[in-house]
Amino acid sequence: MLKLIRAFLNAGVLEDGLVRPVNEGTPQGGPLSPFLSNVVLDDLGKQLARRGHRFCCYAMIATSTFAPTTTAKG
Question: Which of 12, 19, 32, 67 could be stapled to 8 by a disulfide with Cβ–Cβ 3.0 to 4.6 Å?
Fold first, then answer.
């Protein structure tokens, strides 16, 4: 799993038909960004529950709300 994450982080971004390297972070709109967010939020949720805090996990669901949709043109 770590090799796959590293490959995503080192892949760069496509701009104007050219691949540009990135030095930090994850590209917005890429599949890795919501995945890593959910990993961190899951651990945060477990820590909060362990400490007796009440919280809402709506941020974990929001990443799937903005999934691209396709429409048939005809």
Answer: 32
In DSSP terms, 18 is beta-bridged to 15
What are the start-end ranges of the E strands in the chain?
13-15, 18-20
Residue 67, beta-bridge partner list:
none
Half-sphere exposure of residue 37, counting CA atoms within 13 Å on the CB side?
A: 18
pLDDT tens digits along 54-64: 877 765 544 44
How many angstroms from the chain centroid is the CA of residue 41?
11
CB of 32 within 8 A of CB of 5? Answer: yes
37: exposed, middle or buried (C-beta count within 10 Å: 0-12, 13-18, 19+)?
Answer: middle
CA distance 34 to 8: 13
